[in-house]
Amino acid sequence: MEDGALNAGDAIRVFAEVKDSLTSEYAPLLGGFKFGSKRDLPIAIADSLAYAIFRLSAGFSMHPTEPNAAVVGPADPPYYVSKIPLSRTLIDENTLRSLRDGLRA
């Protein structure tokens, strides 16, 4: 995670809660958690990928067709926001079991 992130404390807390909720068989699959600078290549790559996926999934990759879309933020191309779809991924033993089984296939 990036040094100085505003919600670093919450991220650590949520990570610990999720990891603690898993059995001893699955908890190690989550690995660890560390902080670093955006100058660190792995963090820079992850940040860039997350940003690109966010823009694509939120519909920021093309000019909006929604007439009420508002331009927000200093970006080129600018952010256009009307409705941003949200999704939720529950990390539990079933999710981790499915991921593990998928890796074995």
Which properties best describe this structure?
mainly alpha; 3 helices; 105 residues
Mind explaining what this structure looks like?
By secondary structure, the chain is mostly helical. It has one domain. The chain is 41% helix and 6% strand. A two-stranded antiparallel sheet has the order 1-2. The relative contact order is 0.12.
How do the strands and helices of this protein lay out in sequence?
Blueprint: H1 8-21, H2 41-57, E1 70-72, E2 79-81, H3 93-104
Shape: extended
In what range is the share of β-strand residues? Answer: 5-15%
Distance between the termini: 30 Å
Please summarize the sheet with the most strands: 2 strands, antiparallel
Query: What value does the Rg take, in angstroms?
Result: 18 Å
Count of the domains: 1
Major β-sheet strand ordering? 1-2
H/E series: HHEEH
- Quote the average pLDDT: 76
Low-pLDDT stretches: none
Q: Summary?
A:
With 105 residues, the chain is mainly alpha-helical. The chain contains three helices and two strands; from the N terminus they run ααββα.
